[in-house]
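Reading a protein record of the kind used here takes little practice once its layout is understood. An example of such a record is reproduced below.
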Amino acid sequence: MASERQGTGTGGAGVAGEGVPARPTMDRDTLAELHRLHAPYLMRALLRLTSGDRGRAEDILQETFLRAWQNPQALTRGPEHGRPWLFTVARRIAIDHFRMQAARVKEVGDEAPEERTTGHDPYDDVLLAHDVRDALDTLPRHQREVLVELHMKDRSAVEAGTALGIPAGTVKSRNFYAVRAFRPILEQRGLTPA
């Protein structure tokens, strides 16, 4: 009886039935750390993918982490390196959900499309701002300052140059290299629009 419980999430390769070994599963601590590190980013991306349908996004998120639990060998580098794999799995699950939905008969409701809420959660904006700030902190100070002046404070190159005490041409040059360096950081963190 104890050997049958082994494959239920403790990380062991238990016994599925008589003489048939169960597939190994991810241990709870690793799964919890994977969820802590990546669930907010995945949820935000899934909300965009599902046009704000929180229920569907949560279903896809749950199924993504179920697959992670069932496939510990896919995440051998550790939870901190799991985001690309999780995003790929979530995207494939979302595609499957959309295909299933397209195959179903459409429901007819009394509500006009413009009366439906978008499901926008202002808390997501706060999380996004926090995540972008953290991503900005990875850039060198001179690039970060230019991005903030031009893109967050919506200043022209001349105005940004005056505020930073540098020529407008230097602002433009730093902006070019800052954007080029910042884009992969945003993509890696799942902060680019879907």
